[in-house]
# Entry
Amino acid sequence: MGRAEGGSCCDSPSLAHHAARFEGRGLSSIGTPSEVVSVTTGVLNPLIGKLTKLLGGEYNNKLTGVMREQASSLKDELSAIKPLLDKMELTDDLDASARNWRDRVRETSYDMENCIDEFMHNTDGAADAEASFVEKMASRIEELKVLAVEANARRREMCKHDDDAINNSTHAHVVADSPISAIRKEVAVLVGIREELVVLLTDPQIELKVVSIVGSAGSGKTTLAMQVYDEIEAQFDCTTFVSASRRPDVESLLGRLLLNLGMTEFSRTLELHEIIDCLREHLEHKRYFILVDDLWDQSAWNIMRCAFPENSNGSRMIVTTRLDDVAVNACHNDHACIYRMKHLEEQDSRNLFFNRVFGSNNVCPPQFQYISAEILKKCGGLPLAIVTIAGLLASTEARSLIEWESIKKALGAMSATKPTLEEMRGILNLSYMHLPVYLRPCLLYLGMYPEDREIWRDDLVKQWIGEGFICSMPGVDLYDVAESYFNDLINRSLIQPERTEYGEVLSCRLHGMMLDLILSKCIEDNFISVAYNYDDVERLNSFKHKIRRLSLKSCAESETLSTSMSQVRSCALFGVLRYTPPLSDFKYLQMLLFDFPFGWDATVDLTAIAHLFLLRYLKVLALTAGIALPTEIKGLVHLETLELDCHRTQSFPSDITHLVNLFHLILPDGTMLPKGIQNMKLVRTLHCSGMSEGSLEDIKGLSKLTNLKELELSTPYGQCLTVEGVDTLISSIGLVRDLKHLMLDCDSECDGYERLSDSLSDPPPCLEYLDLETWKLSRVPRWIGELSCLRFLHLFVLHLSSDEVCVLGELPSLISAMLHVSEVSKNKVVVGTGLFPLLEVFWFQSNEDVSTYLSFEAGAMPKLQKLKLGFGWKEWRGATPVGMECLPCLRDIRVWLRYTVLQSSKNEKDVRADVESAFKCAVRRYPKHTSVVVD
# Structure
């Protein structure tokens, strides 16, 4: 869980500890703006810093006199040409010779950095540099120096004739605000057609109905479909959505549906026909609602539709597509079920544009009214065009009328009625060219991910930092800076928010047209090389530049890649590939990501990672697979992120605690705490699921991890911590003062866990997320009332009284509360006036009938939107909670009827019907529509 909107309760620590850890390192991923990796000039900026380091103390005496002189001269030449290169990055129309020269500088800078890194690595601790490295260094220095001298001549010539030949616009570095809340509601102008679709999908027809939404790129199909999905999903037993993309892998798509629907019990890879059978069986007797977004292929749909039973339960589906024939085929040629997107009317376009540029007041200052109308004409009523241009105009770089005039001029003679695809690309490119230089590599890096992929913010933040894209700012945590970059891209409408919790965007997607633009820029600047299919692989094999960042998708059906992998800095592999380059082929790899589908049960062989001496980021997502690691990894001195989300490991390297620069550590399932964990003082994130096997000394060592922000600990099923282990763990947690996220998952039948109620008298004051679902406590711990930053709470208590509800209700930041209570009070549990002022989700469950005991006073939970109640169906006593009508924002009630072993003459089906009837009868009195679902 993230911070509350507007910032954290606790101040972020200074960047000093980040900067300090890079002192003396051979490579630096953070620093001043001049040291950050750029798109068009590559690593030229950090290269200048490395040359400075090379000429400094510990390495200076390992260089020959001539080489030292050349390196010093090169550093001066590169520093002199850097302003010219910075100017060139800001223009989109370089002539061929200038572009070719810039590309040569970029490619040579990559090679030069690799050479310096290898030199430093091989000479660390050595008395003398090996002759071969010195020779290679000298060759690279001479090559780059020739380019630098040529550049300086070019720079002097340009300055003599026209210093403004290339626009020298500057972009101040700013930390962006959090993304505007509920960003999808920007397109609230779609409300009219949304209601039209809602009526179509909620009619009394009991047969399966498929509704197709068809329209051009950027017309708002996905936004409309998601708004409809969000509005009516509560009316169905089973809901999910999936994106298809232009290159659909049907087996993977349906496998994702299995996972989304909670069917995670499969321990092996299923064949396509088995996945279809499983889905049909799961959905056969349910009223389901499924959204398939961005469908391009009729043959793919013909296979997918076999997984969706045509039952008589009132099930519904939405399919979005750009293609008429796909739309017709999806809805069985029923043209009444096809909705064709229309461009926005003039007033709706203005509302959307003004709301995005000038805020919710929708008021356009007089001096911008005429030019706003002119710019809107160019957008032709296309939502994507409007929000993209509005995002550009709302940015800090476009506040003046002169800037607006410049942007209008750049739009040129675009059609005022219906922009063509090429013109839409021009709008997106204009937004890209107006991006601050420091945001460009962050945006282009999303090209590493497959089309229509949900991309998690936290993954991007770690990857951007590892790549060296993030610039440190005095007094600001580096991860906060990276998150601000993400927020800025959201606010500029260049990436689309996907998963949002409590006003914070946690994941995003790319519009297909934006991905096309990104991949074209990546090719142009040799930023990322992507292979979706065999032809792409062949293209890579004949590419004129060396591959620097490589992304391979499961559709890349090639037996081999003939091009060299040794210069690849970043590699992402998605799906099960026929050919995977062996890790031994990589030499300068810094980022490595494996993402395997759920159900794949082979072993990921990572035994060769030990030689990747520059590796900074390693993530393996293989939830049902194993992993093989080398016996030693202490040579990975630059590793910052190690996330191994996998089912098992043969053994885990015992020397991991030597990795003193590690920030994020997610251990494989069942792996115990590393011995000597107290030495890893920079760790921010730690997940361990083998707690019961850890020694007391290692549990005690957690107290030394003073940089820790996120801690998730669990014991293997059926295993417990000893009483002494519980005491040690509680003591350690109390000493980690900056902790924000804590999850303890331990067997609920073990002894000693009650000590948490009293022993943790002084909890970490910055806690925002606390999950103790399996940590069975007799009462709500008193210390929880001190957590003024707490936003998410999950508790399991034996007893709950109104007084304890009052303690929780006075938490000023609480947004989500999930309470599991064994025994509810004999008197009613009353949620009093003024309690839970920010709460949006309340989940209350017990074996007993919580409906009978729960009541709400007027003024309680004023922002509550979702109420979830769970109890044993045999305990139902026929009542609903008193005072639900006093919850003004309540929109969704879900009742989960649990199985109990009690004897009863009642029939479960009858009880379910009675519960649903009682709750629906209760909500009819409410002024606003509230949905009721009984599971």
Summary: Residues 455 and 851 are 39 Å apart (CA to CA). The chain is about 35% helix and 15% strand.
